[in-house]
Write a structure and sequence with these properties.
Layout (H helix, E strand, L loop, with lengths): L28 E13 L2 E12 L5 E6 L4 H15 L5 E4 L6 E4 L6 E3 L1 H10 L2 E4 L9 H15 L3 E2 L2 H16 L11 H9 L15 E7 L5 E4 L2 E4 L8 E7 L2 E5 L6
Parallel strand pairs: 1-4, 1-8, 4-7
Antiparallel strand pairs: 1-2, 2-3, 5-6, 9-12, 10-11, 12-13
């Protein structure tokens, strides 16, 4: 008889790399992220995607609900956030969604941008900063802001439609989020903003040009019909289950997989 003994496992576990909180100067940086929540709009329980921008110094935040996290929603969120704050910061920190970055080489630092998004940020004069892959906790301010919006502004509420939800978020931002005592700064975001940040934001006076091309991604369903806006477009059935890049260019819609067009 042979008896095999299992080696005793050590209770030791490698510690996670500590997260170091960093603070930025007034007007230096904002952070942007998406969150989502299920909420009743009328009689329908729908998933609403929440664009959230947080000013790094004052912790003032802007939030708006959208039906998707597509490029059009992302650009509209920036325009409305800048209007809400009365200007923009020097830099904005993002995660790595395909609406912003198509590919990124961590070793070399080379980035292939979503051209439409990069053009818009160049128009504003914003320097884009990206989190390192698997280090999204570096945008801790905005991720805390997304949770705050979901738990404080929206939990348990119902709205007639998305317009009513967004009107409520605007009021909530001004009268609740701006006026609370922030857990890290121990000050009201509006007080820090008025004292040190408002004057150093860069004004955004001109309206951005209309988007001529919209780039999004979709996962091809089994029937090969990809939904874009209110239409469904056929692509090769062998693409089923794969991710395609969708370019909406004026009156044409293009689909690309591994550099090939259907």
């Amino acid at each position: 008889m042979v008896k095999h003994l299992q080696p005793r496992r050590s209770a030791w576990r490698p510690e996670q790399e500590p997260t170091v909180r960093f603070e930025t100067k007034p007007g230096e940086q904002a952070q942007v992220d998406w969150g989502s929540t299920w909420i009743y709009l009328g009689d329908q329980r729908v998933r609403v995607h929440l664009f959230t921008m947080v000013l790094g110094y004052s912790r003032r935040l802007f939030a708006r609900g959208y039906p998707s996290e597509g490029l059009g929603s992302l650009l509209d969120g920036h325009e409305r956030a800048f209007e809400h704050f009365g200007g923009r910061t020097e830099t904005i920190l993002y995660d790595n969604p395909r609406t912003i970055v198509l590919s990124k080489d961590e070793a070399s630092g080379q980035v292939q941008w979503n051209a439409t998004f990069k053009d818009r940020m160049d128009f504003y004069g914003v320097e884009i900063r990206l989190c390192r892959f698997y280090r999204a906790q570096t945008k801790g301010k905005v991720e805390s802001g997304v949770k705050y919006v979901k738990r404080n502004a929206l939990a348990g509420r119902r709205f007639r439609d998305l317009d009513e939800l967004n009107a409520w978020l605007e009021l909530w931002s001004l009268h609740v989020a701006d006026q609370r005592i922030h857990g890290t700064t121990h000050e009201r975001p509006k007080d820090r903003f008025e004292r040190s940040e408002r004057a150093v934001l860069v004004p955004v006076e001109a309206r951005p040009p209309a988007v001529r091309e919209r780039v999004e991604t979709r996962i091809v369903p089994r029937d090969g019909l990809v939904a874009v806006d209110t239409n469904r477009y056929p692509v090769p059935l062998e693409w089923a289950g794969r991710t395609v890049e969708v370019s909406v260019r004026q009156q044409a819609v293009w689909f690309r997989l591994d550099g090939a067009d259907p």
